[in-house]
Amino acid sequence: MGPWVGDIRSEVLFWIPFLRWASESHGWDHNKLVTVSRGGAGEWYRDLAPRRVEALDYFGAEELVRLDTDAVSSKKRRLQDRTGLDREILRVAKQEVGAKRVKPLHPKVMYQLFSATKAEPPDQETFRKFAIYRRFPEVPASGLLEELPQDYVAVYFPFNSSFPDTMGNRRFVDSVIERLKILPAIVFLNTNFADESDCSPVLEAGDGVYHIDHLMKANRKLALQSEVIDGAMAFIGSDVDLAYVAPFLGVESIFFHSEPLVAEALYLRFAESVLSETDGTNDLTAVQVSTAERIDGVVSRLTARRT
C-alpha cells in the first residue's frame, strides 16, 4: 500500500484512514499487507500492517526526487499518477518482503475520490464513506529518548508560508518560549538537516531544555518526532504537518500562524470535525499570532493538569 511521498497533512487526514477502510471493508488478511512510506512515518501504520517498507532505507532524499523523472511538476499530480519513483520503490519493496508478485494500492485510487467530489479537501460526508478514523498506535520506545523527563511540551517553529521568517515572528517565538519556561521542560523537535535549516532559533540545551537533532536520521525523523510528541503534554509550534499528527497521537496541538489561512482553513475544519468524533484523539487549534496571548491560558491549563 503506497508509496505515499506527499504532504503529511493529507497522509494523516486522508490516506491512512482510506487504507484502513479499504482493508477492513474488503476483509484483507492483515498479515499479508505491506505499507510503504518514508522518513519513519511507518509508525503511524502499525495497526494496519505488520510489515512496513521504509523508502529512505534504499534511496536518499535527493535520489527520491531524481527517480521521479516521469512525474509532472504538480505535487498533486505526482500523487495521482504512477511514476518511475513508484515503480522503483515497488521493486525494492517486493525484494524486501520476498514476494514475486504484489497487488499495489496506489494513492491514485484515493485521489479518484477527490476527482469525483470536485473538491480538495473532499467533502467530509462523501469522503468518510471511504475512511475509518482512529487514534494512531502508541509509538514504541526507541531507547533514544531515555533522558527526557516525564512532563514536557514538544516545540517546533519552522518558518513557512503561514509563518514566514520575519523579525516579528522571531520575536513572537522568543516570547512563546519565554512563557513556556514555567513548565517542567521543553523538547525542541528541530532537525539537523541542511534542507530544514529555516527554523527559528532555539534555547541551548540544559536547565529543562532538550534537543533531539543529534539523534536525527532521515529514515527515522518522523518516528523520533512522533515518539517525542506521543509522550508530550502538548505540541506547540508553526509546523503544519506535525500539528496534524499530534492529535492523532492523543496530544493537544497548538498551531501558530501569522498569515491568513485560506486553503488551510478547509483542512482545519475537516480535521476539527473528524477529531471531535474520533475516540482517543485530541484537539487541533490554529492561533493567529495577533491573538497569541492565548498561550498564557494554555500554559496555565498545562500547569494545572500536573497538580
Report on this model:
39% of the residues lie in helices and 11% in strands. With 307 residues, the chain is α/β, with parallel strands linked by helices. The chain folds into 2 domains: 8-130, no CATH class; 153-306, Rossmann fold, CATH 3.40.50. α9 links the parallel β6 and β7 (252-257).
Question: What's the topology here?
Answer:
Elements: H1 8-26, E1 34-37, E2 51-54, H2 61-67, H3 75-80, H4 84-97, H5 107-117, H6 124-127, E3 153-156, H7 167-180, E4 186-188, E5 209-211, H8 221-230, E6 234-237, H9 240-248, E7 252-257, H10 263-276, E8 284-288, H11 294-306
Parallel strand pairs: 1-2, 3-4, 3-6, 4-5, 6-7, 7-8
Largest sheet at a glance? 6 strands, parallel
Average pLDDT for all residues: 84
Supply Rg: 19 Å
- How many H/I helices? 11
What spatial form do the alpha-carbon principal axes imply? globular
Count of folded domains: 2
CATH-defined architecture of the largest domain: 3-Layer(aba) Sandwich
Please tally the β strands and state the result. Answer: 8
Q: Strand content of the residues, in percent?
A: 5-15%
> Briefly, what CATH class of the largest domain?
Alpha Beta
Short structural summary:
This protein has helices at residues 8-26, 61-67, 75-80, 84-97, 107-117, 124-127, 167-180, 221-230, 240-248, 263-276, 294-306, and strands at residues 34-37, 51-54, 153-156, 186-188, 209-211, 234-237, 252-257, 284-288. It is α/β, with parallel strands linked by helices.
